[in-house]
Structures are given as C-alpha cells and as structure tokens.
Amino acid sequence: KFYLIPEDPAWNSGSLATYVACFDGHEKIFLLGFDGNDNQNHNYNIYAGSPGYHSNGVEVTENFWEKAMAMIFDTYSNVDFVRVAPSTNFRTPESWRYRTNFRTINFRQFVLESDI
Question: By the 8 A CB rule, do 72 and 80 touch?
C-alpha cells in the first residue's frame, strides 16, 4: 500500500514510522532502536554516511527527533508507546519521562509482553 501522509510533517524515519502506525489505528507501539544520541560527538544513526544523512563524525543532536516524538505522544494519548532498551532506566529524553502513555521496558520484558 501507499500512504499519503497527512499534513506531510517532514520528520525523520523513526518519527514518521511511529506517526503512520498511530494513524493506522494501532493501540500499542513498540519502539525499537529509539536510543537517541548520548554523545554529541558521534552520530549513532544507522543510516549515517549514506545519501541524505550526516557522517558518523558530525555532531548531531536529538532535539528535533525528541520534539517530533513528544508531539506524537501528545496527539495520540490513547496509544501505549513502549520503548525497548537494554534496561528500564536507560537514558530517556527529559520531555518523554512524564508522559503517561510512554514507558521503557528491557529486552526480556519485550519478549514476554510481545509474546514472541
């Protein structure tokens, strides 16, 4: 299927994928690979160095990505956003921490909760 993205937000791939999942009506969305950058001197993006993306050595901040995801969390308050990370106390953007529809689980909890 092809989708016309409502309002064409021009976000990054992770935010846009999350938005499309919400728009499609999913009530629980597991966020894998949403680790962000804990070091501004290294670009952790899997696409780093490919056309349209900065190289690994370029200083990258997550401000735009963090704001886009926070907007999605707020807009789709009925959706359970579950970030999967190495631990439940993994570094989380400050603006996401207190949203009632966002939580972080570890890999083991993901296997149990997703029943895979």
Answer: no
CA dist., res. 86 & res. 88, Å (int): 7
Query: Sign of the C-alpha dihedral, residues 49, 51, 53, 54?
Result: positive
Sign of the Cα pseudo-torsion (88, 91, 96, 98, in order)? positive
**Residue pair 18/26 in contact by the 8 Å Cβ criterion:** no
pLDDT tens for residues 9-58? 667 778 888 998 998 999 999 999 876 655 556 666 777 788 877 777 77
CA neighbor of 15 nearest in space, from 41, 56, 51, 45: 45
Classify residue 94 by its DSSP letter: G
Q: In this structure, what token pair is assigned to residue 57?
A: 């050595």
Question: Which two three-digit tokens encode residue 72?
Answer: 């999605």
pTM, full prediction: 0.79
Paired strand residues for 84? 32, 105
Q: E-strand spans in 1-116?
A: 28-32, 80-84, 102-105
Take residue 65 and report the two structure tokens written for it: 């990505």
